[in-house]
Write a structure and sequence with these properties.
The structure is a homotetramer. By secondary structure, chain A is mostly helical. Chain A is built from 10 helices and no strands. Chain A has helices spanning 6-23, 26-33, 38-65, 69-97, 102-107, 112-127, 130-154, 162-169, 171-192, 200-220. In chain A, helix 2 (26-33) packs parallel to helix 7 (130-154), helix 7 packs across helix 8 and helix 7 (130-154) crosses helix 10 (200-220). Chain A is globular, with a radius of gyration of 17 Å. The two termini of chain A are 33 Å apart. Chains in contact: A-B, A-C, A-D, B-C, B-D, C-D. The A-D interface holds A 53, 56-58, 60-61, 63-64, 66, 68-69, 72-73, 76, 79-80, 83, 87, 102, 106, 122 and D 53, 56-58, 60-61, 63-64, 66, 68-69, 72-73, 76, 79-80, 83, 87, 102, 106, 122. Chains A, B, C, D: Pfam families: TENA_THI-4 (PF03070).
Amino acid sequence: MTNYGKCFTEWREAAGQEWHDYTRHEFVEGIRLGTLPQPAFMNYLVQDYMFLINFCRAWAFAVVKAGTLEEMQACSRTVDTLLQTELGALHTEVCAKAGLTPEALAEVEEAVPNVAYTRYVLDSGLSGDFLDLLAALAPCVLGYGEIGLRLAKESAPDNPYAEWIATYAGEAYQASCVEVGQLLDSAVARRLGDHPEATPRWTELSKRFTMATRLEVGFWGLGRE
Amino acid sequence: MTNYGKCFTEWREAAGQEWHDYTRHEFVEGIRLGTLPQPAFMNYLVQDYMFLINFCRAWAFAVVKAGTLEEMQACSRTVDTLLQTELGALHTEVCAKAGLTPEALAEVEEAVPNVAYTRYVLDSGLSGDFLDLLAALAPCVLGYGEIGLRLAKESAPDNPYAEWIATYAGEAYQASCVEVGQLLDSAVARRLGDHPEATPRWTELSKRFTMATRLEVGFWGLGRE
Amino acid sequence: MTNYGKCFTEWREAAGQEWHDYTRHEFVEGIRLGTLPQPAFMNYLVQDYMFLINFCRAWAFAVVKAGTLEEMQACSRTVDTLLQTELGALHTEVCAKAGLTPEALAEVEEAVPNVAYTRYVLDSGLSGDFLDLLAALAPCVLGYGEIGLRLAKESAPDNPYAEWIATYAGEAYQASCVEVGQLLDSAVARRLGDHPEATPRWTELSKRFTMATRLEVGFWGLGRE
Amino acid sequence: MTNYGKCFTEWREAAGQEWHDYTRHEFVEGIRLGTLPQPAFMNYLVQDYMFLINFCRAWAFAVVKAGTLEEMQACSRTVDTLLQTELGALHTEVCAKAGLTPEALAEVEEAVPNVAYTRYVLDSGLSGDFLDLLAALAPCVLGYGEIGLRLAKESAPDNPYAEWIATYAGEAYQASCVEVGQLLDSAVARRLGDHPEATPRWTELSKRFTMATRLEVGFWGLGRE
């Protein structure tokens, strides 16, 4: 079982069906079984490039909204990881193999569910505080961690998407998930105290987590031929 | 022919097919002919309520980003109109007739194309300047004006959506469109000079206008049974 | 005794010496006694014009960050009041009498304490949530209300600053203070519940209120010959 | 002569007296001659710690507002440098030597000119676009580079502030100045074209650069006993 902290555990529980729809989406199952058609995967990957650009902007916004030096540093590390590892290695390499240049990637038209998700996260930072932004960022980061771990166990060694699975099941990504989980817990404690569940904010944050989860489901829908 | 200024005329032209898809959408034609089923209209109206809340937030953001007292005042007037006229009269009344309370409206789940559109507009303000925000706000305001005028001419007097058409074809709404068109032209001139087309900014603004237009098309799609 | 709600009462108490330094500043006493030299008053008024522009932007930002239609409407009313009454009537008239055109006002160089105060308020909205922004906005709005009431009682009828005093002691301004106080209380309850004092957020908000109060003291310092 | 690009050269020229007041401030001359009293330097350093926190937030905001992956990466590198080198090494070490813990630093009350400067920069990002933010960020980054180079040439080897001078005259800092200068030029060209001086935006950006320079002068004033 993943151990990404207390907030995640409770908000994940509250997200119920939406969390299931996200982490057990047919796209995810297609990756697990290796049956997802390659063109569908490429459609996803191309949209994911634009997604990561805006997701990275949202983590940078978290640096702007952090309340301590430690919070700034934690968020800044995520910005780096996204700019270097994910946007750098994974995407550019995989896309290059498929004949997609960075220039071509930058020209891709963002699909509506992509716009919806990333701009919702950014608006969580504009309209709310650090916690609102984190609650909207969490489902993607931690959901991929959970999916990665499960698929690493449940997929065959010759799975055509083994590299993708290994990225999210890997130590580096899992370590960053644990760190984000801790950031979430400490940020909530620092602002709402030891019994955050007693405040209306807790419910709002949980709802925001669910909403972002719902938007993740829409995003998987882009992985179609 | 509508006369909403020079920027609008050129950006509308550049939006080409997207502008056509937006202003001649089957939903719009259904209203014009009076053939749109009432439940489809209600689905639209309910989403439009949430839309207007966020659209109003975006106009308030324009007050934050304005460069002169006049720009602040112009944007603030739009915030007022939205909070009072559209969110107040039109929606609350029409929805009340259909048995929808304001409380019920506030609980409605935002559809993905709705989230995409409004948060894209708000992010235009977060990522860009006053012009970026205006370019993203313009297609909705001015497109409804154009649609209103056309439908007022082309629809039958006993059209079941006559009230909706009259709102957007009416003097008050048309006057605000003219004002927004002038605001656009003067704001662009104030920042980019007398030959804004010579700057890369112009192309970016035009693209943003087109993107917002494309998101409008997605929004009409919510008006289904 | 002013009755601007519970949050104000407690945060004002916590601001202690800073609140005293602000509301009993020698500039305020100079107005009360009518001994403040006219040029000092004009220096203040000219800076106050720039202040109100940015203060108005901050209230518009509160519309962007509000959580309910009622909160949006309350903040939007304040934007209107500032744009019309204060920036419109009071300043333009008083400044016009003194030979200052709106154009001249717009060219005035903002003093450092003016920049510090207004941008601190705006950054409270950027870095925090609706409550952070309100906590930074409150000392100015409500402090002027408290000062107005006291000076109306304690100043002579022929005080040369009678008009200024009457503005802030007047029914319209006092009503808006009561409304802002209620907005504060309801916004806090809506987010932090019935025992907001139990959360770390409460202390942070109180500190922010004190910081804004301290910046008000610096602003009065601009009212010198 | 420093070579930080074309925009810097022209905006620096336009800042005229303010630029001189900033880079030849008596605090700077006190460092150059080694006559600045140690307590004055510590007062500066303690405020500079808070300054760098907010300056770092502003660079993170630039990541949010960037228009290309390269712009994001350039701004993100500056965030890292600030979080690690300046906030990490320089300050923590120097402050530790002087008996100031990070906890003590975090509790220091921000002086008004410090608030004014950093929040003005952040508001440049909130109210404007990427260029506005860069124009407000540039005087600090590049001015320190210019000062560092001059003082390295004009100060004695046994200067008590040799370490401070070496930091800003050093290769690493100078390289980051050159990069920021290039970022400025390319960002302006990308948005305003090859003749940015022909647009009103250019004048506004130059004014913003001057305003930030003026606020730097106020900041040096904190370096007093």
